[in-house]
Amino acid sequence: MLLQTASLVCFKASLYPTVIPQICVSLRRLREIRNHATMVGPSGSLSPRASITHVIFDMDGLLLDTEKFYTEVQEIILARFNKTFDWSLKAKMMGKKAIEAAKVFVEETGISDSLSAEQFLVEREEMLKTLFPTSELMPGASRLIRHLHAKGVPICLATGTHRRHFELKTQRHGEVFSLMHHIVLGDDPEVKQGKPSPDVFLTAAKRFEGGPIDPLQILVFEDAPSGVLAAKNAGMHVVMVPDPRLDKSFNDTADQVLNTLLDFNPAEWGLPPFEDSGN
Ligand SMILES: O=P(O)(O)OC[C@H](O)CO
Ligand SMILES: [Mg+2]
């Protein structure tokens, strides 16, 4: 609504450029305002953006600091072909199932004649399997998961990662991940296509108690452009916590963009507020 009004204001302002040019702020700026605003009700009280009852978490790059491992091994492999790995390619790969990301990698870099997607997966596996067990939680991940669980908000995980990698990545974080009501992995038979297809999130919504839950009651946390799109394709609300090196244009699809999970305010979404300050 805010953006529709803004478009109208900009259109009118363009008709009277010398009279009200200052009114025509950019749509990007208005999206930023939307990303930081809660609605003010008639009584002046703040009303939440939505009435969220269920939460779905992405894993890599959102709860676990594992995206850096993929970046590292892909840089090493590309160096062999005298090529460099950059964040525009990273943006196209992250969040996807392994084989889907692998195809993007060999095709976009033009090395598919020398290295097939399947060979790429084999080559990177040796390195990844030593790195994944060292995975660390992202800032604010444990606090948010524990808070929602303690308040009885049903939470689950929906990741593109397959079972074997999931076990390696989470082996030091079993307690936190055990708080999830359920976990949907990239190699789940119901997840036919990876993100940006909505499959993984729709499957996750189905498996909650009393599911399928209305997508409008679900808040998804994501770090990847493909994951944000998947959540929107599933009709859900989405908070994006992107790596700052991603192009900012990817932020526009999300309902809210945060620097870190520590910045999340549950009350803005109709969820029980934190009782600590987060420090
Ligand atoms: O971000 P996730 O948790 O869906 O994981 C996807 C891949 O494994 C890594 O990009
Ligand atoms: Mg992710």
Automatic annotation (TrEMBL):
Pfam families found in the cross-reference section: Hydrolase
Domain of life: Eukaryota
Organism name: Acacia crassicarpa (northern wattle)
Coiled coil: none
Lyase is among the record's keywords: no
Stored PANTHER family: 2-DEOXYGLUCOSE-6-PHOSPHATE PHOSPHATASE 2 (PTHR18901), PSEUDOURIDINE-5'-PHOSPHATASE (PTHR18901:SF38)
InterPro entries recorded: Gpp1/Gpp2-like, HAD-like_sf, HAD-SF_hydro_IA, HAD_sf, PGP-like_dom2
Any single GO BP term: glycerol biosynthetic process
UniProt-listed Enzyme Commission number(s): 3.1.3.21
Name of the protein this chain belongs to: glycerol-1-phosphatase
Alphabetical keyword list: Hydrolase, Magnesium, Metal-binding
Catalysed reactions, semicolon-separated: sn-glycerol 1-phosphate + H2O = glycerol + phosphate; sn-glycerol 3-phosphate + H2O = glycerol + phosphate
Any one GO MF annotation of this record: sn-glycerol 3-phosphatase activity
Family: Belongs to the HAD-like hydrolase superfamily. DOG/GPP family.
Essential cofactor(s): Mg(2+)
